[in-house]
User: Which sequence fits this backbone?
């Protein structure tokens, strides 16, 4: 897809690199996609593949595609129609949208834009009252699942953001001024639609007023609970009572702990290479975790997916579905809502073709026999 190049063209450098970049040397970022090249397909022929069916059932939810959209914060940075444009496109594609804790649209507005299915991603704030508020509102708005992100025990060292002077919300600093000035379309748009806010965080009291000059973003930063542990995951599973994915698990041992804590599934993920540089690629984690937990957990492969063949490889290795982050952010930045529609069309077409050439017509029929490591 050419969306990345278009996005790079359209966005001021600090914004593009905030999206595109990863932690430190960006080994994990690159490896998330490169790792797919270490697997090869074993095709089956003469199977009558005239009708390829991409539908699947995930966590009791019927989806038209075996992939959905990962949660990404601050979507307003990339397009003024923000999360709502992406959620509408997901609805048209018949798949799930995930709204981030750090989203710039409310749970209720996303539910209105996309009647479902939707997922809400939780960063556990120190103020558990806020988390309870999210859980109640997600239930009321018909959200089908929660994902608790567990790979942000500390903020990853994203050096591109330091180099570009990326600050949140974007401000005109001497260093970034040239880049904002060189993208007047984005900059004007940003100034004319100034609804940049972490929309779902509404402290129950007058915390922000009491703190005087404390901005909402500062407040959010201070709310990240670095004491997070397995008891907290259990607590959230109890509060929610529905499908709960732990997002950011990569080891079989943690997969077992997650199951014991009440999670119903995992998003195998290293946060798109934005946290621990050197963390394993999600695609390499599927088989060991599937072997360890069997069918006890729903497994989603999240990271590095840019092609239909990547999705097919993840499914063959044992994932129930995949999710994509940057693929839709590039598309949104490049061409707005129509861009996200186009991304779905491209990935759908690539996956359909790859399944036909592999010799399968149904998602459930994709299996271990279809894949092996290169040089096995
Ligand atoms: C700009 C950006 C913002 C993100 N924000 C969040 C977030 O708020 N919560 C979260 O759990 N993951 C977040 N992620 C990680 C994604 O959910 C996902 O794990 C990652 O993008 C997958 O890798 P991919 O971009 O290669 O598909 C973010 C990723 C990007 C690129």
Assistant:
């Amino acid at each position: 897809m050419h969306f990345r190049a278009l996005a790079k063209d359209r966005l001021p450098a600090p914004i593009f690199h905030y999206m595109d970049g990863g932690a430190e040397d960006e080994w994990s970022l690159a490896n998330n996609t490169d790792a797919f090249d270490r697997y090869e397909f074993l095709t089956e022929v003469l199977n009558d593949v005239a009708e390829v069916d991409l539908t699947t059932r995930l966590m009791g939810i019927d989806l038209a595609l075996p992939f959905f959209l990962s949660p990404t914060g601050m979507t307003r940075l990339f397009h003024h129609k923000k999360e709502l444009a992406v959620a509408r496109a997901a609805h048209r594609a018949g798949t799930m949208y995930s709204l981030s804790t750090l989203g710039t649209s409310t749970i209720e507005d996303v539910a209105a834009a996309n009647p479902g299915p939707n997922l809400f991603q939780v960063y556990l704030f120190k103020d558990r009252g806020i988390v309870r508020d999210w859980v109640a509102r997600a239930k009321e708005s018909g959200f089908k699942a929660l994902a608790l992100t567990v790979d942000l025990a500390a903020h990853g060292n994203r050096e591109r953001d330091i180099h570009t002077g990326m600050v949140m919300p974007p401000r005109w600093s001497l260093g970034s001024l040239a880049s904002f000035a060189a993208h007047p379309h984005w900059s004007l748009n940003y100034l004319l639609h100034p609804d940049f806010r972490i929309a779902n965080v509404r402290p129950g009291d007058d915390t922000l007023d009491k703190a005087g000059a404390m901005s909402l973003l500062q407040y959010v930063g201070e709310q990240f609970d670095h004491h997070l542990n397995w008891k907290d995951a259990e607590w959230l599973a109890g509060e929610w009572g529905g499908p709960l994915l732990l997002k950011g698990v990569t080891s079989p041992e943690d997969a077992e702990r997650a199951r014991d804590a009440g999670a119903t599934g995992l998003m195998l993920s290293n946060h798109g290479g934005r946290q621990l540089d050197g963390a394993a690629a999600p695609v390499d984690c599927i088989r060991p975790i599937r072997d360890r937990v069997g069918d006890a957990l729903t497994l989603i492969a999240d990271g590095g997916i840019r092609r239909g063949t990547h999705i097919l490889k993840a499914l063959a290795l044992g994932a129930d579905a995949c999710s994509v982050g940057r693929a839709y952010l590039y598309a949104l930045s490049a061409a707005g809502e129509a861009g996200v529609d186009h991304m779905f069309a491209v990935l759908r077409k690539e996956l359909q073709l790859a399944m036909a050439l592999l010799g399968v017509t149904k998602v459930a029929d994709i299996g271990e026999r279809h894949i092996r490591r290169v040089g096995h």
